[in-house]
Amino acid sequence: MPLDNDGNCTLTELISSLLDRIPNLLSFKSKWSSIRVKLADLNTHLSDISASSSTTNQLSLDLLLSLRETLHDAASVAARCEGPDLSEGKLKTQSDVDSITARLDRHAKDAEVLIRSGLLNEIVTVSSKKEAALRNLVIRLQIGEPESKNSAIDSLLELVQGDDKNVMISVAQGVVPVLVRLLDSCSLSVKEKVVAVISRISSVESSKHVLIAEGLSLLNHLLRVLESGSGFGKEKACVALQALSLCKENARAIGCRGGISSLLEICQAGTPGSQAFAAGVLRNLASFGEIKENFVEENAVFVLVSLGSSGTVPARENAIGCLASLASRDEDMMMLIVREGGVKCLKSFWDSVSDAKSLEVGVVLLKNLALCPIVRDVVISEGFIPRLVRVLSCGVLGVRIAAAEAVSSLAFSSKSRKEIGESGCIGALIGMLDGKAMEEKEAASKALSTLLVCTSNRKIFKKSDKGVLSLVQLLDPKITKFDKRYTVSALELLVTSKKCRKQVVAAGACLHLQKLVEMDVEGAKKLAENLARSKIWGVFARP
């Protein structure tokens, strides 16, 4: 390391000279005493640097050059403190002494970072030029002047954009805690660049846990950007918060620290991109029941309905998804959503979305609203039954399940059951009985057990060649994690028909029912007795 002279004297000589002069200084003795301690620490660091094998590392060269400049300035200020009279005034001299203290402190910390990184001794191996470049950037973010750190964050932002591998390398190099510490001291413009890097990291699934581990420190910085940042900064903060708000503790902290209010303001007046991301954060928060009260206090439903009616497609999807979570098992919230125009908002969203996956949040909202007796008539009057029928056969599992569950809730009266049956949904529900997912089979069974109460719907069901067989197969005790009550109930309604009774017996229901009676499945005993009374089957004895 070039600790030798540059035409004047070595760094160690400059430090030794200052250490010798400090005891004789007459002004600001306590401050110079503190400087003396820092100089001693720097002397130790210089010894470590000089002992390293690297002689060309630019980071250490920059540090030594900056340190030399500070030492020369320190010598100049010390000379002014040797006598009782301060030629440039007490306040000016005190300010200069404080500046020297701060600069030496920064140099000492920078030296510690360099030494601790292993870069000087080349003990950290790198597998590629990118890895080496990213490692240097992580170090540059921790040392030097603010201008240098600003340049480093620009370079880092450029490297991580569009390349997940670079994100993962930088995270492995420890960039996340470095970025969080940088948020404590940088200017607003640099802070927003740091937030942009953090938002990029949050988009890589394997790196999210590192951000979550930073906890409240990172959250508080992001929330401050939400409150006072630029449009760019707010959008990037929302992106990062989408990842962080999946954690219950973080979600609670966001709700308690005024985050919902800031997010709603962005939903109302932010850029199209920031509106979508802000609604995404709110959607995550709404999934935690204890935070719902914060939404009510902030009049969130009005804002979400407005955004769900007129925002971009991603913003509308997130707003509807948030409303769906808020409505879950909360009749008061369901009524509030309806009063604020939520049903018309949902109808508009439903009719404007062509992608079935994007429609899932809308179907879930409908399913949740349909659980409220007062809301059901409103939903039916707005024409949602034919809309449900169309999605029961779509290619998205979650949509089909939610639609079937909505059918179960809307089939609450003889009139609605008949209307739903005539709309053509029974065939789709029979098809769902043969789906791969147990949740799909169960949702279809439950819907059918409600619809088949209606005589005309049973007539429609009987026209299917596979309906009875599909239901009976679900009685098999070997099929676990499946609520058989609905299947039993549907079959109980069907066996009032002689033709269906024969089909049920022929499909092997009797053997399954023996086991289900032993398992005390609700309705199994009654169904078994009905079949036993028929003249077709006399093997299964009446208990």
Task: Give structural attributes.
mainly alpha; single chain; ARM-like; 543 residues; DUF7032 domain-containing protein; ARM-type_fold; repeat; DUF7032
How is the topology of this model organized?
Blueprint: H1 11-21, H2 29-50, H3 58-80, H4 90-117, H5 129-140, H6 146-160, H7 164-172, H8 175-182, H9 188-202, H10 208-212, H11 215-228, H12 231-244, H13 248-256, H14 259-269, H15 272-286, H16 292-297, H17 300-310, H18 313-327, H19 331-339, H20 342-352, H21 356-369, H22 373-381, H23 384-391, H24 397-410, H25 414-422, H26 425-432, H27 438-451, H28 455-462, H29 467-473, H30 485-494, H31 498-506, H32 509-518, H33 524-533
InterPro entries: ARM-like (IPR011989), ARM-type_fold (IPR016024), Armadillo (IPR000225), DUF7032 (IPR054296)
Keywords: Repeat
Domain DUF7032: 11-118
Spatial shape: elongated
Multimerization state: single chain
Radius of gyration from CA coordinates: 35 Å
The chain-level structural class is: mainly alpha
- Average of pLDDT: 90
Q: Could you tell me the number of beta strands?
A: 0
DSSP helical segment count = 33
ARM repeats: 174-216
Keywords: Repeat
Domain DUF7032: 11-118
Pfam families: DUF7032 (PF23005)
